[in-house]
Design a protein that fits this description.
- The protein is mainly alpha-helical.
- The chain has one domain.
- The protein contains three helices and no strands.
- The longest helix is centred in the last third of the chain and has 21 residues.
- The relative contact order is 0.12.
Length: 65
């Protein structure tokens, strides 16, 4: 089995749909991890922050329709 991981823009373009919420959260949490220099031990904090940010972003997107 292969793990087909493509940049989020490629996923959206290929499917014609928005990137799923959990994928967006995971991507943002990883960005936060990288911004901290890849130090371990803050995965839950990264996830929860990413979740808040993505949920707020999705709310803004929904209100702009």
């Amino acid at each position: 089995m292969t793990n087909d991981v493509r940049p989020s823009g490629a996923n959206k373009a290929a499917s014609g749909e928005k990137e799923p919420r959990l994928r967006r959260i995971a991507r943002r949490a990883h960005e936060l991890y990288e911004q901290r220099g890849g130090t371990h031990g803050n995965d839950l904090e990264d996830w929860l922050r990413a979740e808040r940010e993505i949920d707020a972003e999705m709310d803004r997107e929904e209100h702009h329709r």
